[in-house]
Specification:
The protein has about 450 residues and is α+β, with helices and mostly antiparallel strands. The protein has 15 helices and 14 strands.
Amino acid sequence: MGIDKPDKINEGSQELESKSIDPLALLKESFKELGKAASAALPQMTIDDGRVHQNPAVGELARPTETPRPGDPPRAANGDKSERAADKMEFSMGSTPQRENLLNSILNANDISAKEKNEMIRDIKALESRAVRDFVPRQEVLGVYENVSRLLDAKGNQPVSRENRIVLAEQVLEQAAHPMGIDQGQHLTCNVTTVEARIYSKYPSKAAALVADVALTGKFETENPRDNDVVLDRSSLKPDKEAANNPPKDGERSYASQIFQMTAANIHWQRRLFDPNGVGVARGELRYVQIEPINSEDTGERVRNSKGETLKIRDEDGKESKITEPFLDVGDLVSISNEITRKTETNFALANSAECFDCYVHGFKTEQEFAKVLKDEKSQYPLILMVHTYNEPFWKDSGHGGKGGAGGDMGGWHVVNVNSYNEKTGEVQISNQWGDKTDKKVSLSTLYKATFGPPKQK
């Protein structure tokens, strides 16, 4: 997940290093400059139902300075005029308590470097620009600010240390600003990574709240009183080797994503009443955990019972193998997402009916049906689509099976986000979880073919 930094911020960091300047004053000035264009635009904008709109009676406003990252959702599948106009607006939250509280929490923290403060301000700007571009409701942005402030204002070091909470605050802001830059790294978590990217894209306050809740309490509160709260063990809360890198390199999983993905997978496992072999269990008995890998090929992922035993799954031939991944199908992602967002969405997860007839998702059989689904579910973007990495472009992008979750020599089932579909060109914009270079436009035909499994072995 590479990070592009505007020149002005780089200059500010260099100035701090070379001159004796009050960092607080400099950052306040940077933040003041950030709001100038937006403040000037406010009379030409109205807020209706929490969404910002341009007054059609006035001319176009200045284009936001933040350039979308590869894979960021375009405004519309076919680029209609109203949404192209939104791309030319600058966004401002105005003077809200949530924004001011976050700014004060950042500026007054003695243990956050000037460089980190500048980067957080940059991501606030990028988030506000994206909110206009992608029509993210105003309350969602304010919710992000509230939850990042919770991370920065909390006292003590349990269950997550102050140092790690600062890292989480930085990464939540960055991922809310650039949701399609979220990656799975060398973990088998493509499934919950697509959920994470979609929630950060549409409901960023919910993603931020999950990370803050778990970092501050060690648990995620479920909506249904019958379900136990989802609790992460100490090893899963500790950043693994990959998550210890801040900022993460392109393609690596961040610490904030580790917290989100571990929680998302456990929303599934800790609510189950049966293990994968059909044996009854009590709610909360099964857990998906992250432990220290035992070798270079081990990701450290396990599904375990209350005794600490790793679960095993039996195949059709009766052969047993340990579960060392989240072990989720595409249908599970719908209930996980709805638990986090408190929504009842259904049609955002897609799969070829020939390969996943019992997945309880939006299915399609032909290329024409696939195109119709992409057209009809425009309001649900980003979508989640099940593909097989034996097919292009995923086979080449995976290094012929080498990426996390790519499935090895014969590939494996995988999910990606679909951000848009252009009916005129027949191109589909996808966001993969293997780094920015794998976020790309592909033809409808190519992507449809990728929804099939490999040829049957005789």
